[in-house]
Structure formats: C-alpha cells, structure tokens
Amino acid sequence: MSNAEKYTQLIKTEAKRLGFLSCGISKAEFLEDEAPRLEKWLKENRHGEMRYMENHFDKRLDPTKLVEGSKSVVSLLYNYYPEKQQQSDTYKISKYAYGQDYHFVIKRKLKSLLNTLQEEIGEVHGRAFVDSAPVLDKAWAVRSGLGWMGKHSNVLTKSLGSFYFIAELIIDLELEYDTPVTDHCGSCTACIDACPTEAIVDPYVVDGSKCISYFTIELKDDLPSSYKGQFDDWMFGCDVCQDVCPWNKFSKSHNEPLFNPDGRLLNYDKQDWEEITEEVFQDIFRKSAVKRTKYTGLKRNIAFLKSKRED
C-alpha cells in the first residue's frame, strides 16, 4: 500500500470516528469551471450587500493560494437534521441554527483530525475551514464525490438529502483522489417552484440578494417593503428549497448533542417570539448562530413578519 493510500484510509477512518457523515478528497488546484460562474454571479450583483464575496477572488478559486504548499482538499459532511422541529404555526428558524454554532463544533473536530494526522504521520501542515474563509465548499464537496449540486445550489446526496454542513481540511499531503458523482435532479423543479421570493433565478443559480436567508441574516438595513408577505414566517434563515426537495425525505436525524435545541425554541408560538426580551434571547441563543443577527435583527425580522399579518 502506498503512502497516499495509507494516509487516505487513515483520514476517512478518523473522520467517521469523529462523527462525519462522509469524507471525500480532491487535488488542491485551480477551480477552472467555477471561475467564470463566480465572476458572472458577482458581476450580476447576486451577492447584494455581501461585499465580502468580492474579496480574495483568486483564493476562492485556488486553495494553494490560501494554504501554501497544499496538495489536497479533504471535504467532509456533518449532519444537522433535527429529530424534533418547531411547531407549525410560529416564526421559523432554519434548522441548521437550532443548536450550538456549527462553526465552533465542527472546527474542533477538524482540529482533532489534523492533530491525529500529525501524530500518526509526522509533520503535516494544513488549515481547517468551516464556512468562514474564502473557500468554495460546495464546489469542493462536489468535486470530491460527496454529492451533486442541486438546482437550489445545495449539495445533494441520494442517501441523505442536503441537511448537513460542509467543511474542509486543506493539507500538504498527497492523497488518493475521489471522483464526482452524477446529477440526479432530473426534470424536478420543486425547489424553484417553491421559493417564496423567486430567488432561484435559473436551475443551479441562486440570486443571494433575493434569498430570505440573506434578508434575515446578512442585510443590515431595513427589510424591503416590496417583499412584505413573501417571507413565509421565516425569522432567521430559510429551509423552503430543502424542505420540498424529494431527496430530503431520506434525511435522518443527527446524533450530535450540541445541535439539540433549547426547548423554548421548539415550543414558542408567534406571541412568545413577539414578546421575547433581550435577556431571554441571550439565554436561548447563548451559543447559537442566531446571535449573528443580534437581538435587534431578530426583532426587526419578527416585526416585518407581524406587519404582514396585520395588513
């Protein structure tokens, strides 16, 4: 067995032990196919106020510019599909934000994986990424054979759908590389048809500046009145395109205790959310990704949704 095979086997075995759903590996090189797509998307201003998307264009497309001497991109999936969900008639939070902030939970696991490689192999240099640096994580997951890009621009797998986080370890080891899988969206347009704000402008192209997740999390200004009544009661994020996807009927609930929600999150009705105080907000979302929108942001979103009900 060559070193590349041996190290690849070690990484995939350890990833499974750490609780990752799956692990795929690609050669660290320039993403030639993604370059024109990203450039076009930015030129068409699909990123709205997310100006950070314009930064580090070269690093987004070439991991060797992000991590010097890198040879491989290890892509990993981590399940977040919850066993229990919010009651039906309430203001909704995207399922990925039910528990503790995934950035910290998964980053710890990636660092543990890197530490194991260093202990078992010796000097291994690399960096861990969890949706917090200029890395095109979906493109790498697809290239690594973990799934295909759905028409809603989320990565899909036949066995588990799309309710999982994507993370990367970019390292300076030569490894065995995986190959992409085929697209299984076929003629289905469920996600395109269901999007409340028509943000999926073409199959596989999402206009980020029209997405409910963008409005409720990224946008710091007032929410545009032209979208009143179109948010489908989402106060943080949006899962509509994933919820309607036929492949997500295969989703299985996660077994990560840190992703379990506060009971109030599951049981609050609309009035409870409308009356939430900053103290309670800080308590429920103490270690949650929801803190990104802050108390004032969540109250803004709730007021926007409430105003639709009162019109």
Automatic annotation (TrEMBL):
Amino-acid positions noted as binding [4Fe-4S] cluster 1 in the UniProt annotation, renumbered to this chain: C185, C188, C191, C245
Protein name: Epoxyqueuosine reductase
Gene that encodes the chain: queG
BP GO annotations: tRNA queuosine(34) biosynthetic process
Subcellular location: Cytoplasm
Pathway annotation: tRNA modification; tRNA-queuosine biosynthesis
Chief site of localization: cytoplasm
Keywords of this entry: 4Fe-4S, Cobalamin, Cobalt, Cytoplasm, Iron, Iron-sulfur, Metal-binding, Oxidoreductase, Queuosine biosynthesis, tRNA processing
Binding site residues for cob(II)alamin: R60, D131, V155, I166, S213, C238, D239
Catalytic reaction list: epoxyqueuosine(34) in tRNA + AH2 = queuosine(34) in tRNA + A + H2O
